[in-house]
Design goal:
Structural class: mainly alpha
Radius of gyration: 22 Å
Low-confidence stretches: none
Mean pLDDT: 74
Number of strands: 0
Oligomer: single chain
Strand content: under 5%
Helix content: 40-55%
Number of helices: 3
Order of helices and strands: HHH
Largest sheet: none
Length: about 80
């Protein structure tokens, strides 16, 4: 009976452990490295960044490409 109570308690408390306030995994000073074009999922990120710039200039539109920017994360 005691083992059942312990297992129930662990079953309830274990998922709640994910809600604990931990430090962020990515520190603000590490975000500049993650915003590097090399970290992109594209095969040739620098070339695709240039192509996006050309399309933005040609069409007069910019953005909505799904890419996220970097920065210090101060906002």
């Amino acid at each position: 009976m005691r083992l059942v109570r312990v297992l129930i308690a662990l079953g309830v408390l274990y998922p709640l452990a994910g809600c604990a306030p931990f430090e962020p995994w990515v520190k603000p000073y590490e975000r500049e490295h993650l915003a590097d074009p090399i970290m992109s999922l594209n095969r040739d990120p620098i070339s695709s960044d240039y192509i996006e710039h050309v399309f933005g200039t040609r069409e007069g539109a910019h953005g909505a490409t799904g890419s996220a920017g970097g920065g210090c994360g101060c906002n």
